[in-house]
Amino acid sequence: MTEPEAYLECRCGKCRIVLCDPAMRSRTECLCSDCRKRGFMSASRAPENELPEAVVNFERGVDLVYFANAFIVDEASRERLEFSKLSEEGANTTAMSTCCGTLMCGTHPMYQGNTVSVNADSCRVTVPSKVNCQAVVFACDVPDERAKEIEAKRSEPVIYDVFGSLDQPVLQKFVEDVTAPISEDALALANTNFEKLCAEKTILILGFKTEAT
After folding, report:
1. Is 187 helix (H, G, I), strand (E, B) or coil?
2. How many angstroms separate the most distant Cα atoms in the chain?
3. Dihedral of the CA atoms 73, 78, 82, 88 (nearest 10)?
């Protein structure tokens, strides 16, 4: 039996989400405090989940990649998924593996049910091809000195106020990519999506104060 060409896998290998569309829709680096909180939350589950030193030290953002929200997930992996929000009012919902605490994927209302984001610093991402980072976002959430250092080193746009900058071409392209309809081929292959998986579980509210998305 051949291996699927595109999938998300937890660090211990017990939880896998097969991607029915292997194309990476977008890629950003996120400096928001909420992504850091989720990263530290995962790190608290197992020592091998610690955030990359460059992320901890505000030298770069969390590596976020985006895929169509159409999956094949077996029963064992479904059982190993838990869903959480940082706070009751938080926009993001995150799926984490219970076996080792890997951040598997997440969703946001902006994606309109068509896309999931994946923290590639936590989850193992296997796809036939990748895209380059398109923007560094939420630089407003890091110390000013660090933000200026990041901006000086990067060729990609470094965006501070994301929701106030949606008229910028790079963010317009991002919104277009993450709201694009899922292909009919991917939908025909899929046996589930993020929302269906989430509906099988209780969403845990972690009690953090959310500052960004």
Report:
1. helix
2. 52
3. 70
The Cα angle at residue 13 between residues 9 and 16, in degrees rounded to 5:
40
For every residue of 57-98, DSSP letters joined together read TTSS-EEEEEEES-EE--HHHHHTEEEEESSTT-S-EEEEET
Q: Are 97 and 14 in contact (CB under 8 A)?
A: yes
Q: Kindly state the tokens that stand for 24.
A: 């990476």
Residues with Cβ < 8 Å from 34, sequence gap 6 or more? 86, 90, 92, 208, 210, 211, 212, 213
Write out pLDDT tens, residues 68-103. 999 999 999 999 999 999 999 999 999 999 999 999
pTM, to two decimals? 0.94
User: How many other CB atoms are there within 10 angstroms of residue 153's CB atom?
Assistant: 11
What are the residues whose beta carbons fall under 8 Å from the beta carbon of 181, sequence distance 6 or more? 114
